[in-house]
Amino acid sequence: MIALDDLPPLREVIARHGLAARKALGQNFLLDLNLTRRIARSGGPLSGHVVIEIGPGPGGLTRALLLEGADEVIAIERDPRCLPALAEIAAAAEGRLTVIEGDALDVDMAALIASRPARIIANLPYNVATPLLVGWLQTDPWPPWYRSMTLMFQREVAERIVAPPGGKAYGRLAVLAQWRTEPRILFDIAPRAFTPPPKVTSSVVQFEPRHNPLPCDKRALERVVAAAFGQRRKMLRSSLQALGTDPAPLLEEIGIAPTERAERVSVAQFCALAQALERMRG
Question: What is the CATH number of domain 4-209?
């Protein structure tokens, strides 16, 4: 049996299996094992944990997660072309790699880990990165089934996730991410590290769940944030009319000027607005 350390180089695997990355699937493969191991290590201690990986492709990060000591890696891959390459890693991993063919948006990941300590570590396909993140942020009950998330995004998306109030990058994604987690950018990855090279820089972002986030109904928060940033250039007294109620009493209760704009409202204030909306609707 081939050991993990003895598996052939990824470029050879890609050539042998004809794994040209497909733009339609948001694929950009990371082949540098030193870099994938850095990503794996940045996810936190892996021993004693199950790791969920999305879009493993030919398995560069998958190998790194196993080599860095994950008890088990559960890799979810929708591209059937990649399954033979992943099967080779599974054979060398001696029962520590489970590959699931399917769309990660449709998979019940909490059921897969069966209450074991888990982390999510993934080079997310660009075209599903944001919906996957929002789904994980809206997990119930909270604290979530995962201990942490270490995810790769386009740099622009990463900056939107960690943006403070007051700038153009601050918006819905920042509020949702910062309400329940503490996100931070760990490091950037240049386009040349990928095959094929994307046109933009990527960033690895770590999310540590807050064990006691501000009390807030997630659906109400989503409605308030969508209304506020849906017309972000307008004052809140105008944009929040999309909620179907007079926003003036809500703003007055929280102490926010009706002439304020969404990008200057803090996460705590958005949570307070959501709670006030829920009380008003009884």
Answer: 3.40.50.150
